[in-house]
UniProtKB/TrEMBL annotation:
Subunit structure: Homodimer.
Protein name: Glutamate-1-semialdehyde 2,1-aminomutase
TM region positions: none
Source organism: Parazoarcus communis SWub3 = DSM 12120
GO molecular function, one term: glutamate-1-semialdehyde 2,1-aminomutase activity
Lineage per the UniProt record: Bacteria, Pseudomonadati, Pseudomonadota, Betaproteobacteria, Rhodocyclales
Pathway: Porphyrin-containing compound metabolism; protoporphyrin-IX biosynthesis; 5-aminolevulinate from L-glutamyl-tRNA(Glu): step 2/2
Residue numbers of N6-(pyridoxal phosphate)lysine PTMs: 266
Cofactors: pyridoxal 5'-phosphate
Length: 427
C-alpha cells in the first residue's frame, strides 16, 4: 500500500469523522485506502505519494475544462487580489447572473448560493412558499444534497409519505416527501390523481447521476411537465450535475423541456464553491427581499468563486466544446465496452455529453432496481485494478463518471488499454 496515503488516512481519522469531509471519499463502498490528492492539472491528479492518475471524477463534475485551467486560476488570482469577500453586491455577480440567464433560457431570474445542497434546499422552500403546499415528490436513487426533506426513502406504499434515510431527520419532515421510482410515470400519475392539489413540487435529476448514470425513458420528463402544469405544481430540474455538463443547455436543452425552477452547481463554479437556483420570474420574485420566502448567505456570490465560474462557463462556449467532449466520452465508453465484450465480462456503458456510466450488468440500467442488481463485486475489483494502474474512476458502483476537455485521445486510449488487461483478469 502506498505509504503517505495510508498514513494521512490514519491521521485524518483522529480528528475528522471517517477521515473525510464528504462520505464517498472514504472508499467505504469499494474498500481500501482513499488517495489523498496533492495536486491536479489537466486530466490528471497526483496523490500524496506522487503517483499520477488519469482522473474520471473531475471533482465530481466541476473540472469540465480540466484541472487548474490557466484562465480559471488567473481569474481567481486577480479576484483574490481585489479582496476575498465583502458581504455587499458586486458587478461580477450581476455578470454571472446575466450569463446564466442567457445560457439557460428557462432562467428569468437566478440567485447564487455556495453549494448544490443550498440550491435544492432553497428551491424546495421557494416552491412551498409559492404554492402554499407542503408535500414534494422525489425519486428513489436521485440525490439532491443533504437538506432534511430530501434525505428520505420510500414509505411502505405508493401513496404513503417517506421515511428518513438519515439519522437526525424528524419523521415530521420526512412525511412531507413522497418517494417514487425514477422512470415510472404511472406511479406519478396515480399520486397526482389522489392528491395532486397538495403537491408543491417535483424535484428530479432529469438524467440521474447519483445512482450511476440513468437516462429518462421516452415520455417520462414530458409527463412530469404535463402533470405539474395541470396541477399547479412546481417542476424543479436538479441540474447540479448535468447543467453545462451533458450539453450547453443541460438536460432541459437536450429534451426541449422547460422546468419552472432549475438548480445548478459544479461546472458553474469551475471548482470553486458556487451553486444557483433560478427559473420563472413570478416564482423567483417570492424570495426575500421581494417576497416572503427567506433565503440568504454571507458568502453567496463570493467574488472569487464568481470570477472562476464566469471563466469556466465562457470556456464551455468555445465552438465545438461539447462536440469534442462528447466524442472523447463516447470513445471511452465504446472502447471499454469492446474490451469487456472481448473478455466475456458482463458489462455495459452509457454516456451523454461529458458524463458516463459503467455498469457490471449485461444491459444499461433504466431504474434504481436495475442498478442495484448490477455486480458490485466485479465493479470493486475493476475499480482497484484500474486505480493501481493509474486510472481514477469514482469509488462506487453507484456514481457517474466525468470526462474533461483536457482528456486527449491518448489518455482515453491508455485507459482502455489498461481496462482490457483488467477485464481479461476478471473474465
Ligand atoms: N444535486 C445533485 C444532482 C448532485 O449531484 C449534488 C452533489 N453531488 C447535489 C445536488 C448537492 O450538491 P453539493 O454537494 O454541492 O451540496
Amino acid at each position: 500500500m502506498t505509504s503517505r496515503n495510508a498514513a494521512l488516512f490514519e491521521r485524518a481519522q483522529q480528528t475528522i469523522p471517517g477521515g473525510v469531509n464528504s462520505p464517498v471519499r472514504a472508499f467505504r463502498s469499494v474498500g481500501g485506502t482513499p488517495r489523498f490528492i496533492d495536486r491536479a492539472e489537466g486530466a490528471r491528479v497526483w496523490d500524496a505519494d506522487g503517483k499520477a492518475y488519469i482522473d474520471y471524477v473531475g471533482s465530481w463534475g466541476p473540472a469540465i475544462t480540466g484541472h487548474a485551467h490557466p484562465a480559471i486560476v488567473e481569474a481567481v488570482r486577480e479576484a483574490a487580489l481585489k479582496g476575498l469577500s465583502f458581504g455587499a453586491p458586486t458587478e461580477g455577480e450581476v455578470e454571472m447572473a446575466e450569463l446564466l440567464c442567457e445560457m439557460l433560457p428557462s432562467l428569468e431570474m437566478v440567485r447564487l448560493v455556495s453549494s448544490g445542497t443550498e440550491a435544492t434546499m432553497s428551491a424546495i422552500r421557494l416552491a412551498r412558499g409559492f404554492t402554499g403546499r407542503d408535500a414534494i415528490i422525489k425519486f428513489e436513487g436521485c440525490y439532491h444534497g443533504h437538506a432534511d426533506s430530501l434525505l428520505v426513502k420510500a414509505g411502505s406504499g405508493l401513496l404513503t409519505f417517506g421515511n428518513p434515510s438519515s439519522g437526525g431527520v424528524p419523521e415530521d419532515f420526512a412525511k412531507h416527501t413522497i418517494v417514487l421510482d425514477f422512470n415510472d410515470l404511472d406511479q406519478v400519475e396515480a399520486v397526482f390523481k389522489a392528491r395532486g392539489d397538495q403537491i408543491a413540487a417535483i424535484i428530479v435529476e432529469p438524467i440521474a447521476g447519483n445512482m450511476n448514470l440513468i437516462k429518462p425513458r421516452a415520455g417520462f420528463l414530458e409527463g412530469l411537465r404535463r402533470l405539474c402544469t395541470q396541477y399547479g405544481t412546481v417542476l424543479i430540474f436538479d441540474e447540479v450535475m448535468t447543467g453545462f455538463r451533458v450539453g450547453p443547455r443541460g438536460v432541459q436543452g437536450l429534451y426541449g423541456i422547460t422546468p419552472d425552477l432549475t438548480t445548478l452547481g459544479k461546472v458553474i463554479g469551475g471548482g470553486m464553491p458556487v451553486g444557483a437556483f433560478g427559473g420563472r420570474r413570478d416564482i423567483m420574485e417570492k424570495i426575500a427581499p421581494l417576497g416572503t420566502v427567506y433565503q440568504a448567505g454571507t458568502l453567496s456570490g463570493s467574488p472569487v468563486a464568481v470570477a472562476a465560474g464566469k471563466v469556466s462557463l465562457q470556456l464551455t462556449r468555445e465552438v465545438g466544446f461539447y462536440d469534442r467532449l462528447a466524442a472523447r466520452t463516447a470513445q471511452l465508453v465504446d472502447g471499454l465496452k469492446v474490451a469487456a465484450d472481448d473478455a466475456g465480462v458482463g458489462f455495459s456503458a452509457d454516456a451523454v455529453g461529458g458524463m458516463f456510466g459503467v455498469y457490471f450488468s449485461a444491459a444499461v440500467p433504466a431504474s434504481f432496481a436495475d442498478v442495484m442488481a448490477s455486480d458490485r463485486e466485479a465493479f470493486n475489483r475493476f475499480f482497484h485494478a484500474m486505480l493501481d494502474a493509474g486510472h481514477y474512476f469514482a469509488p462506487s458502483a453507484f456514481e457517474a463518471g466525468f470526462v474533461s476537455a483536457a482528456h486527449g485521445e491518448a489518455d482515453i486510449e491508455a485507459t482502455i488499454a489498461a481496462a482490457r488487461k483488467v477485464f481479461a483478469a476478471l473474465g
